[in-house]
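note to self: dont lose this again. the chain is below, predicted strucutre after it. 453 aa total, dont forget to put it in the shared folder this time
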Amino acid sequence: MPFDSTGHRSNQEQKHIVSSENADAGSEHDEPVWDVVVVGAGPAGASAAYAAAVAGRKVLLLEKAELPRYKTCGGGIIGPSRDSLPPGFELPLKDRVHAVTFSLNGKLARTRRSKRMIFGLINRPEFDASLVEHAQKAGAELRTGATVTRVEQHGPAVPDRRTVAVVLADGGTVLARAVIGADGSASRIGAHVGVKLDQVDLGLEAEIPVPATVAEDWAGRVLIDWGPLPGSYGWVFPKGDTLTVGVISARGEGAATKRYLEDFVARLGLAGFEPSVSSGHLTRCRSDDSPLSRGRVLVCGDAAGLLEPWTREGISFALRSGRLAGEWAVRISESHDAVDARRQALNYAFAIKAGLGVEMAVGRRMLGVFERRPGLLHAAITGLRPAWNAFADIARGSTTLASLVRTHPLARRALDILDRKQAAAAATAAAAAAEEDGAAEHSHTAAEAGSPE
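---
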């Protein structure tokens, strides 16, 4: 059997391999039955494909675009992202961050510095392509230009109950024992699974080429600006001769979010430079009861609504959930009946909720505090060394926000107090709204009673 220079089967040979247990189904439909098919070749999909391929399974990675391709993303690589990369992966870093400038809607700017690197910065096209390369080296086959329209677990396209049909826009069908949806925040696979969303935000971003003198001023330093809209913030991430400048806020405030970006760029003195790319993207965060699977289909990364609710950081969530999805999809592919497949899918959901789910729950609490008290957060992180150290440790991956709240009584107490204040404020607002509704109803009833027949 032919192998390439890395010792793996060539793509051409891999394309026609059918595992012995799948041989009958494959011959009937003139189509190999893959152990695992992954839809979407971003960080979640590439991580899933790698995890399944290193387990020795026959893996097909489908991507609708040609690689490399641009993605709206700040490109910050924090510790948990770095720790979730395949062995031997070399990060294509464009800069190493040792300083962070914080500002409150352009005011009260203060820079905190560290001798140790806080996090790294990458360009997504290079980063994503390298991840896919590692998945291919592990044995996964990549097929680009493949747009998935739907998946079917029943019907004429499905030869048996152990198989899923992935239907392509060109009319073709791919068969698999397990499918992983990693096709982004507007996921078709997520729709099939029934993913439910709790929070949707709009991110706007510009890639701005700058002269060497400007680039030097930003080297090794990022800016985080707590914005004028509830829950909003902006960022400047330097990447050599280009600055990635962006803002994010709740969806529904599109015009205000666009004004924030324009004002932010002007305030920075960058309005005179023409962006090479201007883009927008919706980030979607799952609700607590949102499903992570349906039958033999799993979802991960943005397709599952997995990201940090406060910062909207998604790369580490994509890499970690992708790896778990790949590992559990292997077990689903080995399942001989629906009961066992369901058991493995539930194990995947448990693994996600026990790790990333806990982090998301604390992130939601932090977002609630940040929406109401951005000035308090700014004062703490710029004025209190323990708060700055906590920020840096979380970014480096030395700890997580959830661990910090769990293990530090002061942090837990402070968040509990702010939670209670937020709940009290919400209850007061709800009572006031109910009183207004009652008054309006009373007025309407009185008017009807006084009107002639």
